[in-house]
Structure formats: structure tokens, C-alpha cells
Amino acid sequence: MNVSSREVNGVTVVDMSGRITLGEGGVVLRDTIHDLLDKGNKKILLNLGNVTYIDSSGIGELITAFTAVRKQGGDLKLLNLTKKVRDLLQITKLYTVFDIKDDEATAISAFNEVPFRAVS
To answer: Which of the listed CATH numbers 3.40.640.10, 3.30.470.20, 3.20.20.80, 3.30.750.24 matches domain 2-107?
Structure first.
């Protein structure tokens, strides 16, 4: 698992490649998220375009990352899912949990959108 991060308009984009699996891949994801949160980065976009495989442990790490970011008052979105990863998230019904984007510019701008609230 290879990970690099960059800043784009106040959003930390984490470019990932390889496999998110039990062992090294999951640990790398967990450590990366914790390091970003410790540095105060709360808008995190995981670019999974070069992730070739995610096992059940990797899915667990994505959920843990999402939960950790939310607990810190942040937001985590997913970008560029491969067909395999997209299918896996649909099968596990997690497709509705994560905010998933196919275009980096759209994903970056989505962090700055104000959520719709009904006026009562």
C-alpha cells in the first residue's frame, strides 16, 4: 500500500494505491487518518482510483476512518472508486454511508457546500 497526501483548497487529498487488507494496508490507512487528524486536517478525500483490492478488514478500516473523522467534527469522502471497490460497497450497503465522487474538482467543492436544512 502506497499513500501520499496533498492539499487542494483546504482539503487533504490522500492518493492511495495497492491493497487495503488485513495487515499492512489497513494499518497504513489507519495511521494516515490519525496523523492527518492530529495535524488538524478535518476535510479528507480518499482517492481510491489505484486501489486494486479491499478485503473485509479493509472495509472495516474505511468505516473506522470515517467514524474517527466524524468524531473530530470533520468529513471524509471517497473518490475514483474502481468497479471492484464500487461493487463491494454496493453489496455491503456502505455505498449509502460514504459520500462518493467520481471527479476530484466536484469532490473538493462538495466539502464547502452547506447541507440543506428544512426551515420550520
So the answer is: 3.30.750.24
Sheet of 75-79: strand order equals 2-8, 11-20, 43-54, 75-79, 99-101
Residue whose C-alpha is closest to residue 36's, from 76, 94, 2, 78: 76
DSSP state of 115: P
Does pTM top 0.85 for this prediction?
Answer: yes
**CA separation for the pair 97, 95 (Å, rounded):** 6
The string of pLDDT tens digits covering residues 39-61 is 999 999 999 999 999 999 999 99
